[in-house]
Known about the structure:
Elements: E1 2-6, H1 10-22, E2 26-30, H2 33-42, E3 47-51, H3 59-68, E4 75-79, H4 84-92, E5 97-100, H5 105-120, E6 127-130, E7 133-136, E8 141-144, E9 147-148, H6 153-164, H7 172-178, H8 190-202, E10 211-214, E11 218-221
Parallel strand pairs: 1-2, 1-3, 3-4, 4-5
Antiparallel strand pairs: 6-7, 7-8, 8-9, 10-11
Amino acid sequence: MKVLVIEDDADAAAFVKRVLVEAGHAVDVRGDGEAGLHQARDGDYDALVVDRMLPGMDGLRLLRSYRDGGGRAPALFLSALGEVDHRVEGLQAGGDDYLIKPYAPTELVARVEALGRRGQGEAPATRLSVGGLEMDLLSRTVLRDGVKIDLQPREFRLLEFLMRHAGQVVTRTMLLEKVWDYHFDPQTNVIDVHISRLRGKIDKDFNRPLLHTVRGAGYRLEA
């Protein structure tokens, strides 16, 4: 996805950009409302991430102007203003979602990607495919090159998450939060053990590896 982040706090903008880039998305950043509005109108974006409190033109005015001008990219407001009235104002101004600061990086990625799917009108996928690896989410079966692979429930969840983010670097933090439901690092080798087991099942008896370790960053599943 191509995402425009409009945020005046340089550190906050850098953080949002890093999180989204790590998830495999292309990100542009603008630091004030007017520059953000011009960029949103000129660029072909799949989603906008907009801070409410911006210099020159606040996020509400920015998004109203963008919508009035025919802009259709779905937009996520980021704000420390979390009262119900604030959220309603954001949605009424043309926002599609509203995320309150502080937030978990994985939730930011999930919400932005959900906006992208909404904008494309995609139906939920029930089959995932990467190279010769196929996963049927309804029957809970996995095949590689036609050969059935038996996975434990946690291995299935791990592979599903990797396949949904195929071609992207998936960090350990993302895996802990989304596969193990941990919102802290337990300081164990649980991820390494499961990655090793999964790699042994989906790669060991086949000609080319699909599951790659990205040193110092995480893992990536790709053909």
